[in-house]
């Protein structure tokens, strides 16, 4: 074999190997998706429980970008996620109506709770979130707001508005522009009130003197939904793989995985797909 023939043969082998590696890389890439979700689903520990079960069932990895719901939806609008898993139904329905998402599926729910110092200096304890916020404002009690356009922040602003206090929340009101865990840490350190989702609260370890003071109000209901990002807007979106996640999480297997996630025997989320 001449030197030229050997060179051509080696070049051919290298090209074939490069093609195989490119195909393998593409296949590997196809078996992963990006999910823009809320800090509550991440910091509650749900995804650490849920996503390994999904990968076992489908072979698909999920990389979670945990943000406030508003930021998660904005990430998807830019085409930087394949699927969103969030909890602000009005914003989710707008996202779909504007053509950014294919369809919204309800997945699960829990509730919001008002957390505060056990001594309850503003005297808010009970089951009426609107009355509690009025007491906090009147007392100028310290209150930590997420202030991050998250689903929790959106709910909090609705409650202030219902209390007639959208522009008068008291001098103790402070927005941190942060996730649920950091907001709870700030409340624990300063003896402040804070609205939280129950899932993150149950998984929160640094409670100091904090306790649940307001719960049970029907307005505190907290629904989560999942949406595949529209590939017509962003052709690179892995819609088929994202749909596999949606189909799994609303299936009996996915719903059972959600129901089985508990801390201290207490469920953090309640599956309600298709209801």
TrEMBL record:
Organism (species): Tepidimonas thermarum
One Pfam short name: PBP_like_2
Secretion signal span: 1-30
Assigned keywords, A-Z: Signal
InterPro entries: ABC-Tungstate_binding, PBP_domain
Top-level taxon: Bacteria
Protein name, per record: Tungstate-binding protein TupA
Domain PBP, chain residue ranges per copy: 30-252
Gene name tied to this protein: tupA
């Amino acid at each position: 074999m001449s030197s030229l023939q050997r060179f051509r043969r080696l070049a051919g082998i290298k090209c074939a190997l490069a093609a195989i590696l490119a195909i393998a890389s593409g296949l590997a890439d196809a078996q992963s998706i990006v999910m823009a979700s809320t800090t509550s689903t991440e910091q509650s520990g749900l995804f650490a429980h849920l996503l390994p079960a999904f990968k076992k069932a489908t072979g698909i990895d999920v990389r979670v970008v945990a943000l406030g719901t508003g930021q998660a939806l904005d990430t998807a609008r830019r085409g930087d996620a394949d699927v969103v898993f969030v909890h602000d139904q009005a914003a989710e329905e707008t996202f779909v109506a504007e053509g950014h998402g294919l369809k919204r599926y309800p997945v699960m729910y829990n509730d919001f709770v008002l957390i505060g110092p056990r001594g309850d200096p503003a005297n808010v304890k009970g089951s009426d979130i609107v009355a509690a916020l009025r007491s906090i404002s009147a007392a100028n009690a310290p209150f930590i707001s997420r202030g991050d356009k998250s689903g929790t922040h959106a709910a909090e602003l609705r409650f202030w508005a219902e209390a007639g206090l959208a522009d008068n929340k008291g001098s103790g009101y402070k927005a941190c522009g942060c996730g649920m865990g950091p907001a709870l840490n700030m409340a624990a350190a300063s003896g402040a009130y804070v609205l939280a989702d129950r899932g993150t609260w149950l998984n929160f370890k640094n409670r100091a003197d904090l306790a649940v003071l307001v719960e049970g109000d029907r307005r505190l209901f907290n629904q989560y939904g999942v949406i595949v990002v529209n590939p017509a807007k962003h052709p690179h979106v892995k819609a088929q793989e994202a749909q596999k996640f949606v189909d799994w999480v609303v299936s009996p297997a996915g719903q059972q995985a959600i129901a089985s996630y508990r801390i201290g025997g207490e469920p953090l989320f309640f599956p309600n797909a298709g209801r």
